[in-house]
Design brief:
Oligomer: single chain
Shape: elongated
Strand content: under 5%
Number of strands: 2
Largest sheet: 2 strands, antiparallel
Radius of gyration: 34 Å
Structural class: mainly alpha
Helix content: 55-70%
Order of helices and strands: HEEHH
Distance between the termini: 81 Å
Strand order of the largest sheet: 1-2
Length: 150
């Protein structure tokens, strides 16, 4: 009976050792996958930032060139090339952002409501308080919906 117990104990210890070894290999494999993912993300971000720096440098040099041409044009009395009515024309698109760089939700809606707001820029404090408490109670004009500011 003692020999059977000794064999069972050896097998139990061997099994526990194999389980620990398998877990360790699994963890090492997982760590390697995470490291590879981080490395690819780092390389993609670094590539994007390099393109962005190059773009910003080109943009800055073009801006300086336009300023120099503008200064020369003022001294000579003519409009520099590439400008229409004194405003420079867009010549180059910025590099595309990374997919991970997404706008924050709700950022566009705030800009849209501020730019499309029918309220005048100066309002009386009473009107502002009324709108804050009850929403926009003005009547809609020609198909416009009344805005509720809540």
């Amino acid at each position: 009976m003692a020999r059977i117990k000794a064999v069972m104990n050896e097998r139990r210890l061997a099994y526990e050792g194999a389980v620990k070894l398998a877990e360790q290999q699994k963890e090492e494999h997982y760590d390697e996958m995470v490291l590879q993912h981080q490395d690819t993300q780092f390389r993609a971000e670094r590539k994007y930032l390099q393109r962005r720096r190059q773009y910003m440098a080109r943009k800055e040099t073009k801006r300086l060139e336009r300023e120099m041409e503008g200064a020369q044009a003022l001294t000579q009395g003519s409009v520099p090339e590439g400008e229409v009515d004194g405003s420079p024309a867009a010549k180059e698109d910025p590099p595309e952002p990374l997919p991970a760089e997404a706008k924050q939700p709700g950022a566009d809606s705030v800009e849209a409501t501020e730019s499309e707001s029918p309220h005048p820029t100066r309002t009386k404090p009473v009107d502002a308080a009324t709108v804050g408490l009850f929403g926009d109670v003005r009547t809609p004009q020609s198909g416009q919906k009344a805005l509720d500011h809540q």
